[in-house]
Amino acid sequence: MTLYGYPVVAVVSLLAMNLLVVAIFFAVVRLLRGPSLSDRVVALDLVGVLAVGMISVHAVFTGQPMLLRVAILLALVAFVGTVAFAFFLEKRGRE
Amino acid sequence: MMAHLNDLLVCLFMLAGAIFCLIASLGVFRMPDLYTRMQAAAKSSTLGVVCIILSVAIHFGDAGVTTRAMLVIVFLFLTAPVAAHMVARAGYISNVPLWHRSVADELRGQYDAATHELASGRPSAEDPRG
Amino acid sequence: MRLFLGNLLLAFVWSLMIAEFSVASLIMGFAFGFLLLWLFQPLVGGSSYFGKVRQIVRFSLFLAKEIVRANLHVAWHVITPSSFFKPGIIAVPLEPQTDFEATLLANILTLTPGSFSVDISTDRRVLYVHVMDVENAERTRWELKEQYETPLLEILRS
After folding, report:
1. Where in the sequence is the domain holding C96, given as residue range(s)?
2. Beta carbons within 8 Å of C22's beta carbon, 6+ residues apart
3. Would you state the pLDDT for residue A93?
4. Across the interface, do A90 and B114 touch by the CB < 8 Å criterion?
5. Is residue A79 within 8 Å of B84, Cβ to Cβ?
6. C40 and C60: one domain?
7. What is the ipTM of this complex?
């Protein structure tokens, strides 16, 4: 299936990639502005999850299923990072 | 015909996922306090990324990719709420204020300041089931 | 339990037969195996297993619908001005639960519309939930318990 001579999946993945870039932009604005440290952690977690989505879209765009493994790894690391940050925040709140 | 249906599904899931991700990020950008922001982040980003990964699985369609995609989906559904829950708890403990127009805060005063143990302050007599 | 193992075996055999070993083929094999066992119900007995599978499938579909609805809900909150919001943290009393049940319930509440679990009390009697629209705290409490806790415990305990 083609759209203006290009495969429609490629066109749609470019569009989705652009939407995700806009999403990451807003998350980064919150990361820079966030009044408290917890807000920044939320924004950072969101950036990590959106990056997983971007890598998956890129996997479809380039036709490289190998990139899905990168996405799995990034999801794991983002989760562990967020949990570590939460522990740190809680420890800091106790002192 | 089958290939067309496949492409259509891939496009549908990918666009829906990207739009949900955008909603999550807009929510985090414009909601008034930490807890309302986390509502948007936890719900929409999870479903958005799950939709995108589902579209990857449909696009490649071979056994290895599908299995791995299912793994990521289960992992995301189990961990994203846990991470959000931990950050919200840490935020409440480090005194991040609720929005000034919040109508209820039944968590106030329930934490033990030293040990962070959480009391169950409400008597169950107020349970409306009687 | 015996029927569940049999059903898994049938799913495994199905994936061997169609020479494709993936999640999709296993799910398809499980569905066909379930149909087969259901057809031979007088021979294999165990009607509680069929009821339970039907319960799990119905609850999963309900959850999928709720998760999509939660996202539309968030989208609605993103486009309405924040002067309409009435957020708040309310306490939901719980039935006595194990760690696993409490974790699952907290995850489900986080993914469903308008509610977000903040913390569970140390004695596991109360779950503190952040709710987006607190119209009536008592009613919200009752709805959360009725919609999510009751069917979940029914599935996990029976």
Report:
1. 50-157
2. B62, B63, B64, B66, B67, C15
3. 65
4. no
5. no
6. no
7. 0.89
Tell me, yes or no, whether C57 and C72 share the same domain: yes
Q: Are C87 and B103 in contact (CB under 8 A)?
A: yes
* Structure tokens, A90: 């809680």
User: Is B2-100 in CATH node 1.25.40?
Assistant: no
> Is A56 in contact with B111 (CB distance < 8 Å)?
no
Q: Is the pLDDT of residue B125 over 60?
A: no
Which residues of chain C neighbour B36 with C-beta distances below 8 Å? 77, 85, 87, 130, 132
Question: Is there a contact between B120 and C119 if contact means CB atoms under 8 Å apart?
Answer: no
**What are the extents of the domains in chain B?**
2-100
- Please report the number of interchain residue pairs, chain A to chain B, with beta-carbon separation below 8 angstroms: 177
- Note whether B89 contacts A76, CB cutoff 8 Å: no
Q: Are residues C79 and C12 in the same domain?
A: no
Q: Are residues C62 and C108 in the same domain?
A: yes
Residue B129: closest C-alpha in chain C:
C142
Question: Alpha-carbon distance C64 to B96, whole Å?
Answer: 32
Give percent of chain C above pLDDT 90: 9
Do C62 and C33 fall within a single domain?
no
Residue from A82, C106, A79, A47 nearest B76 by CA? A79
CA–CA distance, C40 with C136 (Å, rounded to integer): 50
Query: How many residues would you count in chain B?
Result: 130
Residues C38 and C68 occupy one common structural domain: no
Alpha carbon of B15: minimum distance to chain C alpha carbons (Å)? 14
Q: Check A71 against B46: CB less than 8 A apart.
A: no
Q: What does the pLDDT look like over B36-90, one tens digit per residue?
A: 888 888 889 899 999 999 999 988 888 788 888 888 899 998 898 999 989 988 8
Establish if C97 touches chain B: CB-CB under 8 angstroms: no
Number of compact structural domains in chain C: 2
Question: Tokens in use for B25?
Answer: 């990020």
Helix ranges, chain A (H): 8-33, 37-62, 67-94
What is the spatial distance between Cα C79 and Cα C65, in angstroms, rounded to a whole number?
22
